[in-house]
Design goal:
By secondary structure, the chain is of the alpha/beta class. The chain has helices at about 35, 85-105, 120-135, 150-160, 180-185, 200-205, 220-230, 250-260, 275, 330, 345-365; strands at about 5, 15, 80, 110-115, 140-145, 170, 240, 260-265, 280-285, 305, 310-315, 320-325, 340. The longest helix has 23 residues, at about 85-105.
């Protein structure tokens, strides 16, 4: 049963969850309706109009009042937090800023991507990033290395990009081949160009009060951007992050704490995860287990950000499978005040935040306001 495990959504390895972590009645829950009815529409409500776009370098808009906040009464269907729409807004704002920077000082932000091996999914991700750069006017650089390349070869290319003034961001596409040490390679990226936000010094700055990282990891940054743009009040609220990966869970918890939420992290050793999650006004689910979070885990009116992207069998789909989140959407959308769909929620925001970080790096390097 899907709810018998928690995992780190950044890894394919599933972590066992002791049976004691689940309430006695959990095994008797009926299957998630989304699994029982594969062709049932997963979107419960039309996307709401978004606040007026703000400049990427301006502070977040003021949170909504209690009358129009996304954490509203659950009497009505949940508001859909449309990541595609927000990502489109973000890209439009970035394009404006890139043009303004080019016209003012003649500088075009540059993003370098290093791909090792020939994994089809990684090639697709890199291709999508390249297209996104072109769409907003950011210059892209790409290095493709064979599967059997050495760590030294990869680090040599990183060093070249570190010293190239036309490159403002460097991204090493993960996962790397098994014979390579991810930590050694990621740590070779200059902290000033670490647009993925994975450098230990960036994470350390994120964890410290009164310090700001050079970059925030893209997926957690995208989660926060969705909350801000949909007027979800964070200050003083209870937040639960399900999952503690270095890529999503931990930085998301740190960002919520910086925004003055009271934060709990639910993980594979947590007792009574359902009870803890039910106390949350904001839930970010990032464990990589399909439909783990059920409707009875959700506090009425809570805002739900679902980071999970999990394939489940669907014989009616041309691909033989479809994608679902960590949250049972059909159940949760009847309880929550706002919720991201999967797909179309957090996913589109990750590349948008990568572009945002690259623009931010170029502005900081050239002291452009």
């Amino acid at each position: 049963m899907a709810s018998s495990i928690l995992s780190d959504c950044s890894s394919a390895r599933l972590l066992p969850l002791r049976r004691a972590l689940l309430p006695p009645r959990a095994p008797r829950l009926r299957p998630c309706p989304a699994l029982a009815h594969p062709r049932r529409l997963l979107v419960a409500a039309r996307p709401q109009l978004l606040p007026r776009p703000r400049r990427m370098d301006s502070p977040p808009a003021a949170t909504a009042s209690s009358a129009d906040s996304a954490t509203v009464s659950a009497d009505a269907p949940a508001k859909v937090i449309d990541g595609k729409l927000v990502a489109k807004q973000v890209r439009e704002e970035i394009a404006v800023e890139v043009t303004r920077m080019k016209d003012a000082i003649g500088i075009v932000p540059g993003l370098a991507v290093i791909l090792v091996g020939s994994r089809k999914d990684s090639q697709t991700y890199v291709r999508n990033k390249k297209k996104a750069c072109e769409a907003v006017g950011i210059k892209s650089y790409e290095v493709n290395l064979p599967e059997d390349s050495s760590e030294e070869e990869v680090i040599k290319h990183i060093a070249s990009f570190n010293s190239d003034p036309s490159v403002h961001g460097i991204l090493v596409q993960l996962p790397l081949p098994r014979h390579m040490n991810d930590e050694n390679i990621l740590n070779a990226v200059s902290i000033e160009k670490d647009v993925d936000g994975f450098h230990p010094l960036n994470i350390g700055r994120l964890a410290m009060q009164g310090r700001d990282p050079f970059f925030v990891p893209c997926t957690p940054k995208g989660c926060m951007e969705l909350l801000h743009r949909f007027g979800v009040e964070i200050k003083g609220k209870r937040a639960v992050v399900i999952g503690r990966s270095n890529i999503v869970g931990m930085p998301a918890a740190l960002l919520l704490q910086k925004a003055n939420a009271t934060v709990s992290i639910v993980h594979s050793q947590t007792k009574n995860p359902e009870e803890i999650t039910r106390q949350a006004d904001i839930v970010i689910a990032a464990v990589g287990v399909a439909n783990l979070v059920r409707g009875n885990w959700i506090k009425p009116g809570a805002a739900i950000i679902d980071v999970g992207i999990n394939p489940v069998d669907d014989p009616e789909s041309p691909r033989g499978y479809r994608l679902v989140g960590d949250v049972c959407y059909e159940e949760a959308s009847k309880v929550a005040g706002a919720i991201t769909p999967v797909p179309g929620g957090v996913g589109p925001m990750t590349i948008a935040m990568l572009l945002s970080n690259t623009l931010e790096s170029a502005k900081r390097t050239h002291k452009f306001k």
